[in-house]
Amino acid sequence: MFSTLESKLGNRLVLPNHDAYDELRKVWNGAIDRRPKAIVVCESEQDVVDAVNFAKEENLHISIRGGGHNLAGTAVCDDGLMIDLSNMRGVEVDQAKKVAIVEGGAKLGDIDVATQKYGLVTPTGTVSKTGVAGLALGGGLGYLRGKYGLTCDNIVGAHIVTAEGELIYVHENNHQDLFWAIKGGGGNFGVVTKFEFQLYDLGPEVLAIDVMYDYQDVKSILTKAQEFLENAPDDISFNITAMMLPPAPFLPEALHHKKVVAVSGLYAGDPKNGESVIQPLRELAKPIVDQSGVIPYEELQKKLDVMVQDHIPVYGTSLYFKDLDEKTIDVLLNKLENAPVPTVLSQLWALSGKMNRIPEEETAFAIRDASFVLLLDVMVMPGMDEEVCKQWVDSLYADLLPYSHRNASYLNGIALLESATKNTFAQNYERLLSIKRKYDPSNLFRHNHNIDPK
Ligand SMILES: Cc1cc2nc3c(=O)[nH]c(=O)nc-3n(C[C@H](O)[C@H](O)[C@H](O)COP(=O)(O)OP(=O)(O)OC[C@H]3O[C@@H](n4cnc5c(N)ncnc54)[C@H](O)[C@@H]3O)c2cc1C
Questions:
Q1: Fewer CB within 10 Å, N- or C-terminus of the chain?
Q2: How far is the CA of 33 from the centre of ligand 1 (A)?
């Protein structure tokens, strides 16, 4: 079956009997164990074209791996063809146009390194080793969302291999429908081999917010943070994370196993003007540690990398909220009190500024009127019961759903769930469906928050 493809790709086609197969089918989430029929380790756009054409002819469904960080592990599939872009990580900067041209397997850190050489940035996420492709296609929330919007808002062009095996260039005047759809519609429409992202002047030094409070103050921290958000300038984007600190060597021993609330963020204007603006976020309660201050942008973007372990089984969920009213906070905190394991990362990211001013129909990413998004993950460490953790996450979602905003979730932070997909695409769903039917009527690209063309 694979001989024609093998003649084109040589050892870039990896079959189950190949030594590299088990390593290549691994993704970030250790709970995922899927066995594709073959993996194509692409090194060029032509490799992607060959792989898609082959899948089309052989009636094989396709999964696409950018950085492999998706919680639902949709980069890898059972019995289909996995198109692996992780060797395509090039980033070029067009300084004059202020555009970064980024290959589909790049990590966020690859972009920061290349763009910061010129004092430029594009909004991405907060952990530098995350893949940009899945993040950008599903939204992209980072510390610049208030000032410059989501990652998907800053896609100004893309090279896409469609389900027809055609390599096309989409931008505002070419394949406008597809250009609209990839700004939040996920991997439904083809393989993006290259993105073009808008760049802005920032750095190298920026003012970072990095305060840690005692968990006992969590309720008043959330209430005060919400008050702060009401008048927060676009320059500020911040996240609130409740967790029990691990006994990790990079943390002082006094903090091991301590339950804390961390507030992290960025003031994206002139650091001199930001000190007084960020001050209220440093006084939400009595800090245990406050490392807020001026640091290189690249350092900020890498700060959380040490907290992230790869290949641990993770169960997670997400919901948007309009307000963190007392009842919502109580339901969440009660649930956290009764978590079956201590390895829960519960994040509330404040949403404001530019990302929320973009009209809902302007991009496929529809939820533009929430104030917070919950991103909750449970890491299942050795000895912990995976099924118990999964059930607890499902029950937390069910308990909080009635208090959520539009029953919607950040799709990059939730396992596959048809109702969440539809609720989140909201009024944009029908338009996405018609674009899916046009570009991928046989649902070749189905391993994603799927817009089923049937
Ligand atoms: C440690 C960690 C930190 C994170 N931090 C953030 C954050 O700060 N902000 C945020 O918004 N999100 C964050 N996320 C979530 C992140 O957005 C998703 O995990 C996202 O899927 C990562 O992209 P990826 O390329 O690694 O995904 P992959 O797992 O490789 O792919 C996921 C899906 O995206 C699609 N896809 C991937 N590549 C392509 C491509 N080239 N062309 C077409 N479709 C493609 C496919 O449908 C694929 O199934 C984080 C996740 C992790 C694990």
A1: C
A2: 18
According to CATH, the topology of domain 205-418 is Vanillyl-alcohol Oxidase; Chain A, domain 3 (3.40.462)
pLDDT at site 1: 86
Q: How far is CA 372 from CA 33, 198, 368, 419, in A?
A: 32, 25, 11, 20
Sign of the CA dihedral 409, 412, 416, 418? positive
CA distances (Å), origin 351, targets 228, 276, 370, 410, 430: 12, 21, 7, 12, 25
Given ligand 1 and candidates 135, 197, 239, 307, which is best to mutate, with the most ligand atoms within 8 Å of its CB? 135
Each residue's pLDDT tens digit, 120-153: 999 999 999 999 999 999 999 999 999 999 999 9
CA 54 to ligand 1 centroid distance, Å: 25
Quick: pLDDT tens for 3-37. Answer: 999 999 999 999 999 999 999 999 999 999 999 99
Counting ligand 1 atoms within 8 A of each CB, the residue from 26, 32, 34, 69 with the most, and so the one to mutate, is 69
d(CA 379, CA 342): 9
**C-alpha to C-alpha distance for 268 and 146, rounded to whole angstroms:** 9
Q: Is the CB of 313 under 6 A from ligand 1?
A: no
Can you give the pLDDT at residue 431? 98
For residue 177, the model assigns a pLDDT of 98
Ligand 1 centroid distance, CA of 267 (Å): 25
In CATH, the architecture of 91-201 is 2-Layer Sandwich (3.30)
Q: Considering only the top CATH level, what class is 3-84?
A: alpha beta
CA-proximal residue: ligand 1, atom 38 (nearest): 66
Q: Could you tell me if the CB of 447 is within 6 A of ligand 1?
A: yes
In the chain, what are the domain boundaries?
3-84, 91-201, 205-418
For ligand 1, whether the C-beta of 145 sits within 6 Å is: no
What mean pLDDT is reported for the chain?
A: 97
Burial profile 399-434: b = 16 or more Cβ within 10 angstroms, e = fewer = ebeebbbeebbbbbbbbbbeebbebbbeebbebbbe
